[in-house]
Protein backbone atom coordinates (compact mmCIF):
# COMPACT_ATOMS: atom_id res chain seq x y z
CA UNK A 1 0.00 0.00 0.00
CA UNK A 2 1.40 3.46 -0.80
CA UNK A 3 2.08 5.29 2.42
CA UNK A 4 -0.53 7.95 3.06
CA UNK A 5 0.29 9.66 6.35
CA UNK A 6 -2.77 9.78 8.58
CA UNK A 7 -3.65 10.93 12.07
CA UNK A 8 -3.44 7.25 13.05
CA UNK A 9 0.28 7.25 12.26
CA UNK A 10 0.72 10.12 14.73
CA UNK A 11 -1.22 8.13 17.31
CA UNK A 12 0.65 4.92 16.45
CA UNK A 13 -2.60 3.03 15.90
CA UNK A 14 -2.67 0.64 12.90
CA UNK A 15 -5.24 1.34 10.17
CA UNK A 16 -7.45 -1.31 8.57
CA UNK A 17 -8.02 -2.32 4.96
CA UNK A 18 -11.71 -3.22 5.16
CA UNK A 19 -12.75 -6.17 3.00
CA UNK A 20 -15.63 -7.21 5.25
CA UNK A 21 -18.23 -4.43 4.82
CA UNK A 22 -19.67 -1.92 7.31
CA UNK A 23 -18.82 -3.30 10.74
CA UNK A 24 -18.90 -1.06 13.82
CA UNK A 25 -15.90 -2.73 15.48
CA UNK A 26 -13.66 -1.66 12.61
CA UNK A 27 -15.28 1.80 12.56
CA UNK A 28 -18.22 1.23 10.20
CA UNK A 29 -18.06 3.23 7.02
CA UNK A 30 -16.00 6.19 5.83
CA UNK A 31 -17.91 9.40 6.49
CA UNK A 32 -18.70 11.53 3.45
CA UNK A 33 -16.16 14.37 3.09
CA UNK A 34 -19.04 16.87 2.91
CA UNK A 35 -20.40 15.58 6.22
CA UNK A 36 -16.99 16.03 7.85
CA UNK A 37 -16.83 19.59 6.43
CA UNK A 38 -20.32 20.30 7.78
CA UNK A 39 -19.22 19.06 11.23
CA UNK A 40 -16.29 21.46 11.23
CA UNK A 41 -18.64 24.35 10.31
CA UNK A 42 -21.07 23.26 13.00
CA UNK A 43 -18.30 23.29 15.61
CA UNK A 44 -17.75 27.04 15.17
CA UNK A 45 -20.99 28.41 16.69
CA UNK A 46 -23.19 27.76 19.67
CA UNK A 47 -26.73 26.65 18.97
CA UNK A 48 -29.63 25.57 21.17
CA UNK A 49 -29.67 21.78 20.66
CA UNK A 50 -33.48 21.64 20.83
CA UNK A 51 -33.71 24.15 17.93
CA UNK A 52 -31.32 22.01 15.92
CA UNK A 53 -33.19 18.78 16.74
CA UNK A 54 -36.45 20.45 15.71
CA UNK A 55 -34.98 21.34 12.30
CA UNK A 56 -33.51 17.81 12.03
CA UNK A 57 -36.96 16.46 12.85
CA UNK A 58 -38.48 18.29 9.86
CA UNK A 59 -35.74 17.07 7.53
CA UNK A 60 -35.93 13.47 8.74
CA UNK A 61 -39.71 13.64 8.39
CA UNK A 62 -39.35 14.80 4.77
CA UNK A 63 -36.85 12.06 3.97
CA UNK A 64 -38.89 9.29 5.55
CA UNK A 65 -42.51 10.45 5.01
CA UNK A 66 -42.99 10.14 8.79
CA UNK A 67 -44.65 12.87 10.87
CA UNK A 68 -41.49 13.59 12.83
CA UNK A 69 -37.92 12.46 13.34
CA UNK A 70 -35.00 12.68 15.71
CA UNK A 71 -31.22 12.26 15.50
CA UNK A 72 -29.86 9.76 18.02
CA UNK A 73 -26.39 8.46 18.86
CA UNK A 74 -26.86 5.37 16.65
CA UNK A 75 -29.63 2.98 15.62
CA UNK A 76 -29.14 1.15 18.87
CA UNK A 77 -29.79 4.35 20.86
CA UNK A 78 -32.79 5.02 18.57
CA UNK A 79 -34.23 1.67 19.71
CA UNK A 80 -33.65 2.54 23.38
CA UNK A 81 -35.33 5.93 22.96
CA UNK A 82 -38.20 4.33 21.01
CA UNK A 83 -38.78 1.88 23.86
CA UNK A 84 -38.56 4.70 26.45
CA UNK A 85 -41.20 6.69 24.53
CA UNK A 86 -43.52 3.66 24.36
CA UNK A 87 -43.12 3.09 28.12
CA UNK A 88 -43.71 6.65 29.28
CA UNK A 89 -45.64 8.56 26.60
CA UNK A 90 -46.13 12.09 28.00
CA UNK A 91 -45.90 11.01 31.66
CA UNK A 92 -43.11 13.06 33.28
CA UNK A 93 -43.18 10.97 36.43
CA UNK A 94 -42.52 7.74 34.50
CA UNK A 95 -39.83 9.48 32.42
CA UNK A 96 -38.10 10.56 35.62
CA UNK A 97 -37.95 7.07 37.11
CA UNK A 98 -37.10 4.81 34.15
CA UNK A 99 -35.67 2.14 34.13
CA UNK A 100 -37.91 1.51 37.15
CA UNK A 101 -41.17 0.41 35.53
CA UNK A 102 -43.22 -0.70 38.52
CA UNK A 103 -46.90 -0.22 37.72
CA UNK A 104 -46.13 0.71 34.09
CA UNK A 105 -47.06 -1.43 31.06
CA UNK A 106 -43.52 -2.49 30.20
CA UNK A 107 -43.64 -5.56 27.94
CA UNK A 108 -42.35 -5.47 24.39
CA UNK A 109 -43.68 -8.36 22.33
CA UNK A 110 -41.19 -9.66 19.78
CA UNK A 111 -41.25 -12.68 17.44
CA UNK A 112 -38.51 -15.04 18.66
CA UNK A 113 -36.99 -15.18 15.16
CA UNK A 114 -36.54 -11.39 15.21
CA UNK A 115 -34.49 -11.41 18.40
CA UNK A 116 -30.86 -10.40 17.95
CA UNK A 117 -27.92 -9.00 19.89
CA UNK A 118 -29.13 -5.43 19.46
CA UNK A 119 -32.45 -5.98 21.23
CA UNK A 120 -30.63 -5.32 24.51
CA UNK A 121 -31.22 -1.67 23.49
CA UNK A 122 -34.98 -2.16 23.88
CA UNK A 123 -34.54 -3.42 27.45
CA UNK A 124 -32.28 -0.53 28.48
CA UNK A 125 -35.11 1.81 29.63
CA UNK A 126 -36.60 -1.02 31.71
CA UNK A 127 -38.77 -2.94 29.25
CA UNK A 128 -39.05 -6.73 29.31
CA UNK A 129 -39.07 -8.56 26.00
CA UNK A 130 -41.79 -11.19 25.66
CA UNK A 131 -40.71 -13.41 22.79
CA UNK A 132 -43.17 -15.59 20.95
CA UNK A 133 -43.29 -18.17 18.16
CA UNK A 134 -40.86 -20.98 17.48
CA UNK A 135 -37.41 -21.36 15.98
CA UNK A 136 -38.56 -24.33 13.93
CA UNK A 137 -37.77 -24.07 10.27
CA UNK A 138 -35.94 -27.34 9.81
CA UNK A 139 -38.54 -30.00 10.56
CA UNK A 140 -40.42 -29.59 7.30
CA UNK A 141 -43.73 -28.97 9.06
CA UNK A 142 -44.35 -25.79 7.10
CA UNK A 143 -43.94 -23.84 10.32
CA UNK A 144 -43.89 -20.08 9.74
CA UNK A 145 -41.77 -19.34 12.88
CA UNK A 146 -44.46 -17.06 14.24
CA UNK A 147 -48.12 -16.86 13.26
CA UNK A 148 -50.13 -13.62 13.37
CA UNK A 149 -52.50 -15.14 15.97
CA UNK A 150 -49.57 -15.73 18.31
CA UNK A 151 -48.75 -12.01 18.22
CA UNK A 152 -52.37 -11.11 18.86
CA UNK A 153 -52.57 -13.56 21.78
CA UNK A 154 -49.42 -12.12 23.39
CA UNK A 155 -50.85 -8.59 23.63
CA UNK A 156 -52.10 -7.83 27.16
CA UNK A 157 -52.62 -4.74 29.35
CA UNK A 158 -48.89 -4.90 30.09
CA UNK A 159 -47.88 -4.53 26.44
CA UNK A 160 -46.04 -1.28 25.67
CA UNK A 161 -45.00 -2.04 22.08
CA UNK A 162 -44.31 -4.70 19.47
CA UNK A 163 -40.74 -4.83 18.14
CA UNK A 164 -39.96 -5.98 14.62
CA UNK A 165 -36.54 -6.56 13.05
CA UNK A 166 -36.73 -5.70 9.38
CA UNK A 167 -34.77 -7.98 7.06
CA UNK A 168 -35.69 -9.18 3.57
CA UNK A 169 -36.60 -12.56 5.10
CA UNK A 170 -38.50 -11.58 8.27
CA UNK A 171 -42.03 -12.93 8.74
CA UNK A 172 -44.92 -12.20 9.14
CA UNK A 173 -45.10 -9.15 6.84
CA UNK A 174 -44.79 -5.80 8.66
CA UNK A 175 -48.24 -4.65 7.46
CA UNK A 176 -49.86 -7.68 9.11
CA UNK A 177 -48.09 -7.04 12.41
CA UNK A 178 -48.98 -3.32 12.33
CA UNK A 179 -52.66 -4.11 11.70
CA UNK A 180 -52.81 -6.42 14.71
CA UNK A 181 -50.92 -3.95 16.91
CA UNK A 182 -53.09 -1.00 15.93
CA UNK A 183 -56.29 -2.98 16.56
CA UNK A 184 -55.06 -3.06 20.17
CA UNK A 185 -53.66 0.53 20.23
CA UNK A 186 -50.11 -0.74 20.57
CA UNK A 187 -47.24 0.95 18.65
CA UNK A 188 -44.74 -0.97 16.48
CA UNK A 189 -40.99 -0.28 16.70
CA UNK A 190 -38.95 -1.36 13.66
CA UNK A 191 -35.20 -2.01 13.70
CA UNK A 192 -34.19 -1.18 10.11
CA UNK A 193 -30.64 -0.19 11.07
CA UNK A 194 -28.93 -1.74 8.06
CA UNK A 195 -31.80 -1.78 5.53
CA UNK A 196 -30.36 0.95 3.29
CA UNK A 197 -29.94 1.06 0.31
CA UNK A 198 -32.46 0.99 -1.36
CA UNK A 199 -33.30 4.60 -0.45
CA UNK A 200 -37.03 3.77 -0.81
CA UNK A 201 -36.73 1.88 2.47
CA UNK A 202 -36.43 5.23 4.28
CA UNK A 203 -40.19 5.65 3.81
CA UNK A 204 -41.32 2.07 3.16
CA UNK A 205 -41.72 0.87 6.75
CA UNK A 206 -43.51 4.02 7.86
CA UNK A 207 -45.87 3.58 4.91
CA UNK A 208 -46.43 -0.03 5.96
CA UNK A 209 -47.68 1.22 9.32
CA UNK A 210 -44.64 1.30 11.63
CA UNK A 211 -44.91 3.87 14.44
CA UNK A 212 -41.17 4.27 15.00
CA UNK A 213 -38.35 3.18 12.67
CA UNK A 214 -34.63 3.14 13.55
CA UNK A 215 -31.89 3.53 10.93
CA UNK A 216 -28.14 3.69 11.43
CA UNK A 217 -26.50 6.97 10.36
CA UNK A 218 -23.08 5.36 10.17
CA UNK A 219 -23.79 2.58 7.68
CA UNK A 220 -24.85 3.29 4.05
CA UNK A 221 -25.86 6.90 4.82
CA UNK A 222 -22.20 7.47 5.69
CA UNK A 223 -22.83 10.07 8.33
CA UNK A 224 -20.93 10.18 11.63
CA UNK A 225 -20.49 6.67 13.12
CA UNK A 226 -22.19 7.71 16.36
CA UNK A 227 -25.48 8.78 14.74
CA UNK A 228 -28.81 7.18 13.99
CA UNK A 229 -32.27 8.24 12.93
CA UNK A 230 -35.57 7.60 14.60
CA UNK A 231 -38.57 8.42 12.38
CA UNK A 232 -42.23 8.14 13.18
CA UNK A 233 -45.20 9.29 15.18
CA UNK A 234 -45.17 12.90 16.36
CA UNK A 235 -46.29 12.22 19.94
CA UNK A 236 -43.77 9.43 20.44
CA UNK A 237 -40.97 11.60 19.03
CA UNK A 238 -42.05 14.33 21.44
CA UNK A 239 -41.60 11.86 24.28
CA UNK A 240 -38.15 10.96 22.90
CA UNK A 241 -37.17 14.64 22.86
CA UNK A 242 -38.36 15.13 26.46
CA UNK A 243 -36.25 12.20 27.63
CA UNK A 244 -33.19 12.98 25.55
CA UNK A 245 -32.66 16.75 25.53
CA UNK A 246 -30.95 18.44 28.43
CA UNK A 247 -33.82 20.74 29.42
CA UNK A 248 -33.60 20.88 33.16
CA UNK A 249 -34.08 24.62 33.31
CA UNK A 250 -35.96 27.13 35.43
CA UNK A 251 -39.68 26.69 34.91
CA UNK A 252 -40.26 30.44 34.47
CA UNK A 253 -38.07 30.63 31.35
CA UNK A 254 -38.74 27.14 29.98
CA UNK A 255 -39.45 27.68 26.29
CA UNK A 256 -38.64 24.63 24.15
CA UNK A 257 -39.25 24.73 20.36
CA UNK A 258 -43.00 24.35 19.88
CA UNK A 259 -42.96 21.86 17.01
CA UNK A 260 -40.84 19.39 18.94
CA UNK A 261 -42.26 19.76 22.45
CA UNK A 262 -45.76 20.96 23.24
CA UNK A 263 -45.55 22.43 26.75
CA UNK A 264 -49.36 22.37 27.22
CA UNK A 265 -49.14 18.58 27.41
CA UNK A 266 -46.56 18.71 30.19
CA UNK A 267 -47.18 19.52 33.85
CA UNK A 268 -43.63 20.85 34.28
CA UNK A 269 -40.06 20.75 33.02
CA UNK A 270 -38.73 17.27 32.19
CA UNK A 271 -35.69 16.22 34.21
CA UNK A 272 -32.60 14.62 32.73
CA UNK A 273 -34.12 11.49 31.22
CA UNK A 274 -32.87 8.04 30.33
CA UNK A 275 -31.57 9.47 27.03
CA UNK A 276 -29.22 11.93 28.68
CA UNK A 277 -26.43 9.35 28.56
CA UNK A 278 -26.90 9.02 24.79
CA UNK A 279 -26.35 12.65 23.93
CA UNK A 280 -25.74 13.84 20.39
CA UNK A 281 -23.57 16.89 19.71
CA UNK A 282 -24.36 19.67 17.25
CA UNK A 283 -21.54 18.44 15.02
CA UNK A 284 -23.05 14.94 14.80
CA UNK A 285 -26.57 16.25 14.14
CA UNK A 286 -25.32 18.52 11.34
CA UNK A 287 -23.06 15.81 9.90
CA UNK A 288 -25.94 13.35 9.81
CA UNK A 289 -28.26 15.87 8.12
CA UNK A 290 -25.68 16.61 5.42
CA UNK A 291 -24.96 12.91 4.84
CA UNK A 292 -28.67 12.12 4.61
CA UNK A 293 -29.19 14.86 1.99
CA UNK A 294 -26.36 13.39 -0.09
CA UNK A 295 -27.58 9.82 0.39
CA UNK A 296 -30.97 10.87 -1.01
CA UNK A 297 -29.35 12.40 -4.10
CA UNK A 298 -26.97 9.52 -4.73
CA UNK A 299 -27.29 7.32 -7.83
CA UNK A 300 -27.69 4.03 -5.94
CA UNK A 301 -27.82 1.98 -9.16
CA UNK A 302 -24.40 3.33 -10.06
CA UNK A 303 -22.95 2.49 -6.62
CA UNK A 304 -24.29 -1.05 -6.84
CA UNK A 305 -22.82 -1.47 -10.33
CA UNK A 306 -19.40 -0.33 -9.07
CA UNK A 307 -19.49 -2.63 -6.04
CA UNK A 308 -20.59 -5.58 -8.12
CA UNK A 309 -17.85 -4.94 -10.72
CA UNK A 310 -15.30 -4.74 -7.92
CA UNK A 311 -16.59 -8.05 -6.50
CA UNK A 312 -16.08 -9.66 -9.93
CA UNK A 313 -12.59 -8.16 -10.13
CA UNK A 314 -11.78 -9.60 -6.68
CA UNK A 315 -13.12 -13.03 -7.65
CA UNK A 316 -11.04 -13.01 -10.85
CA UNK A 317 -7.91 -12.00 -8.87
CA UNK A 318 -8.37 -14.84 -6.37
CA UNK A 319 -9.35 -17.47 -8.97
CA UNK A 320 -5.93 -19.02 -9.68
CA UNK A 321 -4.62 -19.28 -6.11
CA UNK A 322 -3.74 -22.88 -5.30
CA UNK A 323 -6.00 -24.38 -2.64
CA UNK A 324 -8.67 -21.67 -2.98
CA UNK A 325 -12.13 -22.07 -4.53
CA UNK A 326 -14.10 -18.88 -5.08
CA UNK A 327 -17.65 -18.01 -6.03
CA UNK A 328 -19.73 -14.84 -6.13
CA UNK A 329 -22.75 -14.59 -3.87
CA UNK A 330 -25.53 -11.97 -3.78
CA UNK A 331 -25.92 -9.18 -6.30
CA UNK A 332 -29.62 -10.07 -6.38
CA UNK A 333 -32.90 -8.98 -4.82
CA UNK A 334 -32.41 -10.15 -1.24
CA UNK A 335 -28.75 -9.19 -1.05
CA UNK A 336 -28.04 -6.26 -3.35
CA UNK A 337 -24.24 -6.23 -3.01
CA UNK A 338 -22.24 -9.18 -4.38
CA UNK A 339 -19.30 -10.53 -2.38
CA UNK A 340 -16.74 -13.29 -2.91
CA UNK A 341 -17.06 -16.49 -0.89
CA UNK A 342 -13.67 -18.26 -0.76
CA UNK A 343 -13.17 -21.84 0.45
CA UNK A 344 -9.71 -22.88 1.61
CA UNK A 345 -8.48 -26.42 0.98
CA UNK A 346 -5.79 -26.59 3.66
CA UNK A 347 -4.30 -29.77 2.16
CA UNK A 348 -3.31 -27.77 -0.90
CA UNK A 349 -2.86 -24.24 0.50
CA UNK A 350 -0.13 -23.19 2.96
CA UNK A 351 -2.61 -22.64 5.80
CA UNK A 352 -6.30 -22.96 6.74
CA UNK A 353 -9.07 -20.34 6.72
CA UNK A 354 -8.86 -19.47 10.42
CA UNK A 355 -5.11 -18.96 10.42
CA UNK A 356 -5.35 -16.97 7.19
CA UNK A 357 -7.88 -14.58 8.75
CA UNK A 358 -5.82 -14.29 11.94
CA UNK A 359 -2.61 -13.61 10.08
CA UNK A 360 -4.17 -10.94 7.81
CA UNK A 361 -5.55 -9.12 10.86
CA UNK A 362 -2.10 -8.96 12.43
CA UNK A 363 -0.46 -7.27 9.45
CA UNK A 364 0.26 -3.54 9.21
CA UNK A 365 -2.09 -2.23 7.95
CA UNK A 366 -4.52 -4.78 9.35
CA UNK A 367 -6.49 -6.61 6.61
CA UNK A 368 -10.02 -7.63 7.59
CA UNK A 369 -11.88 -10.20 5.45
CA UNK A 370 -15.27 -11.64 6.46
CA UNK A 371 -14.89 -14.34 9.13
CA UNK A 372 -18.48 -15.46 9.85
CA UNK A 373 -18.08 -18.89 8.22
CA UNK A 374 -14.73 -20.18 9.36
CA UNK A 375 -16.29 -23.44 10.55
CA UNK A 376 -16.92 -24.24 6.86
CA UNK A 377 -13.30 -23.26 5.95
CA UNK A 378 -14.75 -20.20 4.23
CA UNK A 379 -13.97 -16.49 4.37
CA UNK A 380 -15.63 -13.66 2.44
CA UNK A 381 -14.31 -10.62 0.60
CA UNK A 382 -16.72 -7.70 0.42
CA UNK A 383 -16.24 -4.87 -2.12
CA UNK A 384 -18.20 -2.08 -0.36
CA UNK A 385 -15.48 -0.48 1.77
CA UNK A 386 -12.49 -0.97 -0.56
CA UNK A 387 -10.96 1.26 -3.21
CA UNK A 388 -9.83 -0.49 -6.44
CA UNK A 389 -6.24 -0.16 -5.28
CA UNK A 390 -7.04 -1.69 -1.88
CA UNK A 391 -8.92 -4.53 -3.60
CA UNK A 392 -5.74 -5.46 -5.49
CA UNK A 393 -3.74 -5.20 -2.26
CA UNK A 394 -6.14 -7.58 -0.48
CA UNK A 395 -5.84 -10.12 -3.33
CA UNK A 396 -2.01 -9.88 -3.13
CA UNK A 397 -1.98 -10.39 0.65
CA UNK A 398 -4.32 -13.42 0.44
CA UNK A 399 -2.18 -14.91 -2.32
CA UNK A 400 1.07 -14.33 -0.37
CA UNK A 401 -0.37 -15.88 2.81
CA UNK A 402 -1.77 -18.98 1.12
CA UNK A 403 1.32 -19.70 -1.03
C1 LIG B 1 -25.98 -2.12 12.92
C2 LIG B 1 -27.23 -2.57 13.54
C3 LIG B 1 -27.72 -1.94 14.71
C4 LIG B 1 -26.93 -0.87 15.45
O1 LIG B 1 -26.72 0.30 14.71
P1 LIG B 1 -25.77 1.46 15.30
O2 LIG B 1 -26.06 2.65 14.42
O3 LIG B 1 -24.36 0.96 15.18
O4 LIG B 1 -26.16 1.70 16.71
C5 LIG B 1 -28.92 -2.35 15.23
N1 LIG B 1 -29.64 -3.34 14.64
C6 LIG B 1 -29.21 -3.98 13.52
C7 LIG B 1 -30.05 -5.06 12.92
C8 LIG B 1 -27.99 -3.61 12.93
O5 LIG B 1 -27.55 -4.24 11.83
What does this molecule look like?
The protein has helices at residues 7-11, 33-42, 49-64, 75-88, 92-97, 120-123, 148-154, 174-183, 201-207, 234-244, 282-297, 300-318, 353-362, 388-402; strands spanning 16-19, 68-72, 107-111, 128-132, 159-165, 188-191, 212-216, 228-232, 324-329, 339-344, 366-369, 378-381. It is an alpha/beta fold and 403 residues long. It folds into two domains: 7-28 and 299-402, Alpha-Beta Complex (Aspartate Aminotransferase, domain 1); 33-297, Type I PLP-dependent aspartate aminotransferase-like (Major domain) (Aspartate Aminotransferase, domain 2). Helix 2 runs antiparallel to helix 11 (282-297), helix 4 (75-88) packs across helix 10 and helix 12 (300-318) runs parallel beside helix 14 (388-402). The mean pLDDT is 93. Pyridoxal-5'-phosphate (PLP) is lined by residues 24, 74-76, 116, 118, 165, 191, 193-194, 216, 218, 228.
Helix content: 25-40%
Pairing-aware structural class of the strands and helices?
Answer: alpha/beta
Determine the CATH superfamily of the largest domain: Type I PLP-dependent aspartate aminotransferase-like (Major domain)
Strand residue content: 5-15%
The stretches of 5 or more residues where confidence is low (pLDDT under 50) are none
* Strand order in the largest sheet: 2-8-7-6-5-3-4
What is the N-to-C succession of helices and strands?
HEHHEHHEHEHEHEHEEHHHEEHEEH
**Name of the CATH architecture of the largest domain:** 3-Layer(aba) Sandwich
What is the number of E strands?
A: 12
Q: What would CATH call the class of the largest domain?
A: Alpha Beta
Average pLDDT metric? 93
Radius of gyration, CA atoms, in whole angstroms: 23 Å
How would you describe the shape?
A: globular
CATH third-level topology of the largest domain: Aspartate Aminotransferase, domain 2
The total number of structural domains is: 2
Say which molecules are bound, naming each kind only once.
Answer: pyridoxal-5'-phosphate
> How many distinct helices?
14
Could you give a short account of the major beta sheet?
Answer: 7 strands, mixed
From the N-terminal CA to the C-terminal CA, the straight-line distance is 20 Å
Cofactor: pyridoxal 5'-phosphate
Pfam families: Aminotran_5
GO molecular function, one term: L-seryl-tRNA(Sec) selenium transferase activity
InterPro entries: Aminotrans_V_dom, PyrdxlP-dep_Trfase, PyrdxlP-dep_Trfase_major
